[in-house]
Amino acid sequence: MRFLAVLLFWLPLRVCQAKRILQNEIFIVPILWHGPNNQITEIKEALSLSFLLPGSVAVIPNLQEHKFSDGGVHRMFSKELFDNKILRSSNLSYILLDDLRKTWDGVLDVILFLRDEDFPRVSSLVGDMGLKAPDQERWIRSPISVTRGCRQDQVQRLRKMLQPYRYVGMLCYDDFALQTHKLAGTLLSNCDGDLCCQSYKESSVLVRKSPQVCELAQDYIQRTIGSDRPFIAGHIRPMPDDCVKFWQSSGELDPIQMSDVCRNNYMYDRFVHNFQALQEKYRTKAVFIMTHPTIRPRVAQMLKAGGIDPLFIDIADLNASIGAAKRPLRTPLSFSLLAVVEEAVSAAATAFLGTAESSMTGMIVQERIARGLDPSTSYFFSLHPSCTVLPCAVPEYYLRRDKRLSSRGTSDKKLPLLSRLPQD
């Protein structure tokens, strides 16, 4: 059953298309921070901020490869990774950074930071994008953020703060609204008067995988699984990176050491049982697995011991799909690109089971919901006692979270569409 009620894909947004940019508009440039999926979250947050600021234009930069997997050497071209047709048809006001640079020297007027902590390596982060940061006296704090709130009066204050500037570097990751990177982001949240939460809900669903990426995913599915065969997809991501390294160890892993190193050590003893339960629920043996290449041997061994023959996609598979594609990608072959295609495979699965702590799982869950798939077909590994065998479905996370927030006095008041809010 298609899940359409949550999403309003074709909202008549209040801003003009990128091709009708005016001379006095403000450009919101997301400063890329962390890995590719975090960077995409930052782009979604920039689009959401632009949604709140009429007369502004969100800038979509190319992605940077993951430094942990690839060294972050090459660019990944956003033009061929995202579905530009959906972005254009939404009337969303955006422009690709590559196009903007044809008429702009790359010098930012101001840095807008959405955290209350010390500024990170601003000049270095901006320089990695081929841009130049302003002097430090033009590094300012945002009056809106996940910690400060996002009411109409705060948005108005931000508009006034940004009036003197044209090129605004937005430094933000998971600071715009509550847990934008996690699972469904704000797509299943009760925003309860938070404009940033609502704007992310309405605009982030417009960022989806491109037809070129989906073609590569479908080629793999057809060759390896079968185009009409139901399958389970999973993302197993020990957290943090040191936990990935710990899983690389030979032999049995010491549970005490694992609890010291890993934030989600509970997953180790549950993931096989969770996949077995999903196989039974969806009546399929096919299981596609995403995990870091260095721990595939351990993951595969554990799944096979549980009677599951996991499927993986590797660089050779991706290279074959690229060679057979109607429009080959210009983005260089890398583990980061492989992960993008893995996500597209997982987004097409009958059911998906992921790691709640990972932005990659969040990217897949949000892509599935944006495509209209029922959120209850997406699951996550959880320590909750009711999810030991059959894993928790994503909506359960938000029901429990809303219950916790409600117990603290949070109202159940619903927020009207942002397109109906006053402009001034």
From TrEMBL:
Signal peptide: 1-18
Domain of life assignment: Eukaryota
Transmembrane helix is among the record's keywords: no
Keyword terms, alphabetized: Signal
PANTHER family hit by this protein: O-FUCOSYLTRANSFERASE 9 (PTHR31288:SF22), O-FUCOSYLTRANSFERASE FAMILY PROTEIN (PTHR31288)
Protein's recorded name: O-fucosyltransferase family protein
Species of provenance: Volvox africanus
